[in-house]
Amino acid sequence: MDTAISLTHLVKKFGKQTVLKDVNFNVESGQIVGLIGPSGSGKSTVIKIALGMEVSDAGNAEVLGKTMPNRQLLGQIGYMAQSDALYDSLSGYENLKFFAQMKGISKANVQTEIEHVTQVVDLQDDIKKRVSGYSGGMQRRLSLAIALLGKPELLVLDEPTVGIDPALRRKVWTELKAIREQGRSILITTHVMSEAEQVDQVALLLGGKVIAFDTPSQLKEQYQVSSIEDAFLKAEGEL
Ligand SMILES: Nc1ncnc2c1ncn2[C@@H]1O[C@H](COP(=O)(O)OP(=O)(O)OP(=O)(O)O)[C@@H](O)[C@H]1O
């Protein structure tokens, strides 16, 4: 099995604060890995190092076989950040078209791709409206649609379902699982524990380390609990 992301012995300091002490885990091809941990535990920092947007103080981040940072790889990665980077004065459709061009999607495929990702996030009725008039949730949905454009080999999604209602969340997960079936890989952070139940592997980040990396069912067994939420709470309590 190919490895999409390999993080070894990552250390990251901000001033005197050591946020990541020794982070190790892999995302294999065709896997969904959920990175969970309390607020401020360093999930976004791990993601940014994996993407080459932050440089670690020690350790190694390899993505799709290349050591990060590596600008050439960015076209193969669909990234959704916590804060949206959208063009307010453009419509949703114009944003999608712009990012499709940036990603080098061929003219022949642009229209079908845009229609597909628009439908995944249920923005059909609002896609011609200006983003400045979008609600927070709609902006998140558009950002997710942009990340999905171009069928990237690897998706890195930082809390993609914040502000998304349960019905649409379910639809988004159906899409994420379809992406996995195509052999593509996903690293996702979430605060929604029912989502963590659906991933292949959970990486639990606590105290600057990934203290558990297992399937949801193994994790529950390890902590002798019936939900990932309880495993999470128990792990936090034990530290
Ligand atoms: N650029 C930065 N400069 C200084 N400190 C930073 C920087 N980026 C992150 N931090 C600090 O690192 C810690 C981890 O932040 P990070 O955003 O990675 O956490 P998180 O687990 O993603 O949190 P949340 O779940 O709330 O999004 C926090 O204490 C944060 O203040």
Automatic annotation (TrEMBL):
Record-linked SMART domains: AAA
Which Gene Ontology molecular-function terms are recorded? ATP binding; ATP hydrolysis activity
By its UniProt entry, which InterPro entries does this protein fall under?
A: AAA+_ATPase, ABC_transporter-like_ATP-bd, ABC_transporter-like_CS, P-loop_NTPase
Keywords attached to this entry:
ATP-binding, Nucleotide-binding
CDD domains reported for this sequence: ABC_subfamily_A
What Pfam families does its record include? ABC_tran
ABC transporter domain sequence ranges: 5-232
Name of this protein: ABC transporter ATP-binding protein
Organism source for this protein?
A: Paucilactobacillus nenjiangensis
